[in-house]
Design goal:
248 residues; alpha/beta; Rossmann fold; six-stranded mixed β-sheet; four-stranded antiparallel β-sheet
């Protein structure tokens, strides 16, 4: 079986700065990967490369057996992406935006409307019919971005900080949706700074630091004892300082 995602020596440089360096990993179909790292570790850059938003400086990306560079359109038809900045069309309403997204993937309007209604109901998203996305709350925008990422039934979904700004009830609903996708064989890649979420949600973990892969495997494979994911993360990336201030 072809891997769902295969990265071989993936590298991205911006001038003199190397954001991702020689990153190699392989994900089997149905994998749920938590991609961790400090701010600036290269997580978002990696997701932008594997979704075709950034061209790598060097290296190779294969998605569902297809080379991203030579078969980019075929790859993009089968993936869903929720970028950290969401990149929504703010001057449309939520339903208008999802209809636009659905049409891009070749869905008919009846299917788009039915799926949109089900997603909105599940995520408790009920904006006024004339309310533009520009006027949505941050959490509402996150919900619309998630809807757009999974509306077309992708085989791989990339989620950059999906739980940021989300209330606890919606967070639980999103976790249930992601579990359901994985059970259907969808491959998921998620970044988050909320380590407790990743520890409970993602069976497989990759840790980046300064663009390099510091650890890759299950939590049991990575840790050396009964340490938490937080302690493992700090041990691997280093740099933690005592939270003491001289005037307090």
């Amino acid at each position: 079986m072809e891997p769902a995602l295969e990265l071989v020596d993936l590298t991205k440089r911006f001038g003199d700065k190397t954001a991702v360096e020689a990153l190699s990993l392989r994900l089997e179909p149905g994998t749920f990967l938590g991609l961790l790292g400090r701010n600036g570790a290269g997580k978002s850059t990696t997701l932008k490369m594997v979704t075709g938003l950034l061209r790598p400086t060097s290296g190779r990306i294969r998605v569902l057996g297809l080379d991203l560079e030579s078969d980019s359109l075929a790859v993009k038809r089968q993936i869903g992406a929720m970028p950290e900045d969401m990149a929504l069309l703010d001057m449309l309403t939520g339903p208008q935006y999802l209809r636009f997204v659905g049409r891009m993937y070749g869905l008919d309007e009846a299917t788009i409307d039915a799926r949109r209604a089900e997603l909105f109901d599940t995520l408790d998203l009920a904006p006024g019919p004339k309310l533009l996305i520009a006027d949505y709350s941050f959490g509402m925008k996150k919900k619309v971005a998630l809807c757009a990422a999974i509306l077309h039934g992708p085989r791989i979904v990339f989620l950059d900080e999906p739980f940021e700004g989300i209330d606890p009830v919606t967070s639980r609903t999103i976790k249930d949706i992601l579990h359901s996708l994985q059970q259907r064989g969808v491959t998921l890649v998620l970044t988050s700074h909320i380590l407790e979420v990743v520890e409970k949600l993602c069976p497989l973990i990759a840790i980046l630091d300064e663009g390099r892969l510091k650890g890759f495997g299950t939590l049991d494979e990575l840790r050396r004892g009964n340490e938490s994911l937080e302690q493992l993360f700090v041990d691997l990336v280093g740099g933690a300082q005592k939270g003491e201030l001289s005037w307090l």
